[in-house]
Amino acid sequence: MLKFRALPQSCIHVIFGVYYQTTIIDSPEVIFLAKLKHFLSFIKIEHTLFSLPLIYSGVFLAAREVPGPSLLLLVLTAAVGARTAALALNRIIDREIDRRNPRTAQRELASGRLTMTEGSLILLAGIGLYLVSAAMISTFCLLLSPIPLLIFTAYPYMKRFTPLAHFGVGLGLAMAPLGGWFAVQQSFDNILPAVLLTLFTLLWVAGFDIIYSTLDELFDREESLYSFSARYGKMRALRISGFLHVAAFAVLVTLFALYVKAVGSFLFLLVSGFLLYLEHKKSSDVELAFFKINAIVGFAVLGMVISWVYFG
Q1: Residue 62 contacts by C-beta under 8 Å, 6 or more apart in sequence?
Q2: pLDDT digits over 104-139, tens only?
Q3: Whole-model pTM?
Q4: Which of 210, 167, 207 is nearest to 297 (CA)?
Q5: Is residue 72 part of a domain?
Q6: How many separate domains does the chain show?
Q7: DSSP string of 286-307?
């Protein structure tokens, strides 16, 4: 009679472990979830936290009352679409630079986890959502809608030839409060409050983008990229960033003094100034300064405007 020796437990674990792992990895559900994770990481929907409070600040500043829910929803979808398009354009245009940079080599296009076709489809979806939302708000907004897209396309190229690339990033995000204002006002009349809010956003974003660039100081220098850190050194770049944030706060004070006059607004103004100071105090921890403190700054500005609407 033929006898079979029992396989060692370790062999059974290896055989069935490999089979189980292969089955799980190859299952449609896991593949779908992995791809969805890459999509969400690619568009970085959480970065909308930088722009959304500024867009709604523009909306409330123009309306001087609580806008209707349909307008607020259309502004939200326009913001998500525009931000998705901006991130997709940045990743597509910079994919070769990202591939050479150890810090960004694992980004989706640079690492190959998403293909150029997939990245382009995400870009088209973002543009489509943005343009449809703008058209549903008004013809006026639809006519102006290509301007931010042109800025989103241009600024990734700027770091290849000018340190003013940081202001390109700032200008892109500065379209947010201006877009919110136009969604309500539908004209260029009495636009000074929106201009002040836009100028604040431009200076604020350019300043924090300089802080962010300190992560790539050596790489940018080796690649002959024109970040402030690579061109002027980290300490001088941070001083320039500090000056920009002082100027940004001065613009915010001007907006408060001329238009947003309320006790609650003044408290939010002080919070905004403190957060800008804290951002530089913690500039050595870029993760904290860039991703966390910055998100709160936008909401502090929104709080300043909403306090004026409700209690001014």
Answers
A1: 180, 181, 182, 183, 184, 185, 193, 194
A2: 998 889 998 889 999 999 999 999 999 999 999 999
A3: 0.86
A4: 207
A5: yes
A6: 1
A7: HIIIIIIIHHHHHHHHHHHHHH
